[in-house]
Amino acid sequence: MSSKRVLIYSIVTLCLIGLYLVSRRAAQKPKSAASGNSAPDFTVTDINGKKLSLSDYRGKVVLLDFWATWCTPCRAEIPHFVDMQEKLGPQGFQVIGISMDDEAKPVKEFYQQYRINYPLGVGDDKLAQSFGGVLGLPVNFLIDREGRIVKKYLGATEVSVFDRDVADLLAQH
Amino acid sequence: MIMKKHIYLALVFVFLFLLSVVAQEPVLFDGTNPVALSFQSTSAQGTALPTNDSIPQSALITPADLANQLQSARQKPLILNVGPHTLYLQAHIPGAEYMGAGSSDAGQQKLRERVKSLPKNAPIVLYCGCCPWSQCPNVHPAYQLLHSLGYTNFKVVYMTADFGTDWIDKGYPVAKGE
């Protein structure tokens, strides 16, 4: 057996190992919902038992809020979202809340306690993964009137940032 | 004859390839042969641990240190997820068992049941990563429970932001589903 052949076999084996590791890493890493991509449509049952589909709000500027009742920074944002919905709703703005709670009961209680004036549904892992994974809360997506994701907000965000970005997007149309 | 040699050599390389794959699979701690792992408590990547937290620094482990240990140690600690189920289903540390939220009665009960049969020096790692460390409702109650039950060789993963930022974005291994 020539040393050349041994070298070739070694390279092929190393390539196989490399390919395996790369494919494994790629499979493990969730795809990200990048800005500019169309927001994936979904349909869930909202807290009042009605159908809630993202596509029903096409034509509006949507702030899609992934949150949970046990998430302190999420709770802190919600009163401001209620205000934004009230003030900017007539201009074509819509907040949609998707709770990542494991049960609907605390969400219903929260909905009443905070007098939420926008649709609220309970999501699951599949819905979260369709948006690139929600692996920490809060996560918000700003979606334009054509259904494109304009911006993703990871973690607690200054409410003034939401105000500015939504105002900019509303002004574009 | 020469053909045979090629086949044998190819088989040897395939064997080596499979061996390398198998070698990456972690051996998880099952409680039958407890080994006190020597956890490192300082980060290899410079993450500063909190000084004024109700969980002492000695009970914390950074994601980088845990990832290193999972890669290098032959026997892995028992890893228990004490966060929300929807987040666990999306992605979790390979081999981690789901206990339920550490802040819930159900989660506390399941955690209690899971460790009941283990020796007090069993190597255990708790983690959540649902939200920023200081606002996580789950890790502190879970820590308090194990501490009150007398476990001495367990660590809590210090995730400053969340599981996505502190684990997945760093390229550490993840598993999905149940």
Detailed description of the structure:
The complex is a heterodimer of chains A (173) and B (178). Chain A has 173 residues and is α/β, with parallel strands linked by helices. Chain A has two domains: 1-30; 43-171, Glutaredoxin (3-Layer(aba) Sandwich). Chain A is built from five helices and seven strands; from the N terminus they run αβββαβαβαββα. Chain A has helices spanning 3-28, 72-88, 105-113, 125-130, 159-171, and strands spanning 43-45, 51-53, 61-67, 93-99, 120-122, 139-143, 149-154. Chain A has a five-stranded mixed sheet with strand order 5-4-3-6-7, covered by helices on one side. The longest helix of chain A is centred in the first third of the chain and has 26 residues, at 3-28. Chain A starts with a helix and ends with a helix. Residues 26-32 of chain A have low confidence and may be disordered. Chain B is an alpha/beta fold and 178 residues long. Chain B has a single domain, classed as Oxidized Rhodanese, domain 1 (3-Layer(aba) Sandwich), CATH 3.40.250.10. Chain B has a five-stranded parallel sheet. In chain B, β6 (124-127), α5 (139-148) and β7 (154-157) form a beta-alpha-beta unit. Chain B is elongated, with a radius of gyration of 19 Å. The A-B interface holds A 1, 5-6, 9-10, 12-13, 16-17, 20, 25, 28-30, 68, 70-74, 100-102, 123-125, 128-129, 133-138, 154-156 and B 5-6, 9-10, 13, 16-17, 20-21, 84-87, 89-91, 101, 103, 129-132, 135, 137-138, 161-165, 168, 171, 173-176.
